[in-house]
Design goal:
heterodimer; A: mainly alpha; Cytochrome Bc1 Complex, Chain D, domain 2; two-stranded antiparallel sheet; globular; B: about 375 residues; mainly alpha; Fumarate Reductase Cytochrome B subunit; 2 domains; 2 strands; about 55% helix; about 0% strand
Chain lengths: ~140, ~375
């Protein structure tokens, strides 16, 4: 009996830790950006930037986050050049999203450079996260 | 003496003859298209089995099927051929000397054809009886030989058929019909030939069972999971490679380009087909090690071997599609195929090659999607 209770407590504890880790990675990254002087973060600003079109001088074409991720983040997107399917970004349908700091950092770097033509500032990345984590 | 309808060719001999015709024709028809390599191989093995059977039957079979019955000296062949020009051609119940030689040469060529086929299958595809024992380079001359022998056989078949037609006309005797019915009209003494139904039945049953066994994968195949007749040795996979490369495109297996190409691709990672990969040093090191260990020059697959072979030493292609072998291999693919929604890009190997992710690119693991 006592064993069972202990076991359940341990399991509940693990669950709490898990949920915290899951919720924590975005906040962890945001606080890192804050320590670089950014913040507070705005989901509205993030969304605006997400939808904005940027001109790529080399190709003469407009690019935005939606070029590859699509206009509805609860559905799959498609890589602009290769056509490879990109899984939905919204956490409501894809729980793997926004769960790894390393992963988020990598894609911010790579995709900001392709889309906007430069790396994003800490403020911009924090805003993006504020927008994306609410989806 | 009145001619009598007499059994000359026993049933196994006739079955052997026509099944060999069928097997050769099937293998010939499928030799050029890699997608039909399975049919080519099945008919090739059947052909091999038939020849081995005939070699045994030439010793233990019925009278006219025995080699000893139609072993003629070359001088007799010449005599026979010369007699064709004049009158008084000698009539043979079984094979005439020229026909007998055609049979022996055809059997020899057939045996060589089957053996070289097994060598090529083992080397180029790493399949079949000799898989793993022969390297790509070792099998290359056999591939050539296999083709030359096949052409030799075609030439000889032409001679054989011409001979049959000529003799049929000369003797007013339907030799082709005789190879179906087994009987000829014979005047005078002839040997007793039993039909050998049991041997013939065993032949038929084994060939049908073997064919069904080889093709049964097609029965359970679906559009999503097509049947893959051949599976090569599995190649080394790397999780990081699949994650990093596979995020944006098919994680092309390192065996599809030589090491120097991968080195250059990583060196210019900030301009990777208009994207900046920004891979950190640790990631790069692991990816490069994997690429180096599995690059095309290690010849792990037929595709790797042929890609590597077609790239000049001073060249360093950055795309698989710019490699000569790739271009040649895809030159017959219609424009409309590339434009299909399911294909879209030449880099989308998986649209047609359903073992693209494993890097295997087996000949028969391929199906062009139909719109």
């Amino acid at each position: 009996m006592k064993k069972n209770v202990l076991m359940m407590m341990a399991m509940a504890g693990m669950l709490v830790i898990n949920v915290q880790a899951y919720a924590g990675d975005v906040e962890l990254l945001q606080s890192e950006y804050q320590s670089q002087g950014a913040g507070p973060f705005s989901a509205a600003a993030g969304e605006k930037m997400w939808r904005q079109q940027y001109l790529d001088k080399k190709s003469g074409k407009q690019r935005s986050c939606q070029t590859c991720h699509g206009s509805d983040l609860t559905t799959s997107g498609k890589h602009a050049r290769t056509g490879k399917v990109i899984d939905p970004l919204a956490r409501s349908v894809n729980s793997e999203r926004l769960t790894k700091v390393k992963f988020m950092k990598k894609w911010f770097k790579r995709n900001c450079k392709w889309t906007i033509g430069r790396e994003c500032s800490a403020q911009e990345k924090g805003d993006f996260l504020a927008y994306l984590k609410g989806l | 003496m009145q001619p009598k309808k007499t059994m000359v060719w026993d049933l196994p001999t006739r079955l052997f003859h026509w099944l060999m015709v069928l097997a050769f024709a099937l293998a010939w028809a499928t030799h050029d298209d890699s997608r039909h390599l399975d049919i080519h191989t099945i008919s090739g093995y059947t052909f091999f089995g038939l020849i081995l059977f005939r070699l045994i039957w030439g010793v233990v079979g019925s009278h006219y099927a025995r080699f000893s019955e139609f072993s003629y000296a070359p001088s007799e062949v010449l005599l026979y051929l010369r007699s064709l020009l004049g009158s008084g051609v000698k009539h043979y119940i079984g094979h005439n000397p020229a026909g007998a030689w055609a049979v022996f040469i055809l059997l020899t060529l057939g045996l060589l054809l089957a053996v070289t086929g097994v060598v090529v299958l083992g080397g180029e595809e790493q399949q079949g009886l000799l898989a793993g024992y022969i390297s790509f380079d070792q099998s290359a001359p056999f591939s050539m030989l296999h083709e030359v022998i096949a052409w030799g056989m075609v030439a000889l078949i032409f001679v054989h058929v011409s001979g049959v037609v000529i003799e049929s006309l000369l003797h007013r005797e339907n030799l082709i019909g005789a190879m179906f019915r087994g009987t000829k009209w014979v005047a005078g003494q002839s040997a007793q030939v039993p039909t050998h139904r049991l041997v013939a039945s065993v032949m038929m049953v084994s060939i049908i069972a073997w064919g069904a066994m080889s093709l049964n994968g097609y029965v359970n195949a679906t559009a999503e999971k097509p049947y893959q007749p051949f599976k090569g040795p599995s190649l080394a996979m790397n999780e990081l490679w699949n994650e990093e490369c596979g995020a944006c495109h098919l994680a092309f297996h390192p065996s599809l380009l030589p090491t120097r190409s991968w080195q250059q691709l990583f060196k210019q990672q900030e301009d990777h087909f208009q994207e900046d990969l920004m891979l950190d040093e640790e990631t790069m090191a692991e990816l490069m090690a994997y690429a180096t260990d599995n690059a095309a020059e290690h010849k792990q697959t037929e595709a790797a071997w042929k890609i590597n072979r077609s790239i000049k030493k001073n060249e360093r292609p950055l795309t698989i599609t710019s490699v000569e072998y790739w271009k040649e291999k895809h030159s017959n693919v219609a424009d409309a195929v590339w434009k299909q929604e399911a294909v879209k890009s030449e880099a989308n190997c998986g649209a047609c090659h359903f073992d693209a992710e494993q890097g295997a690119f087996q000949d028969s693991a391929m199906k062009i999607p139909q719109q």
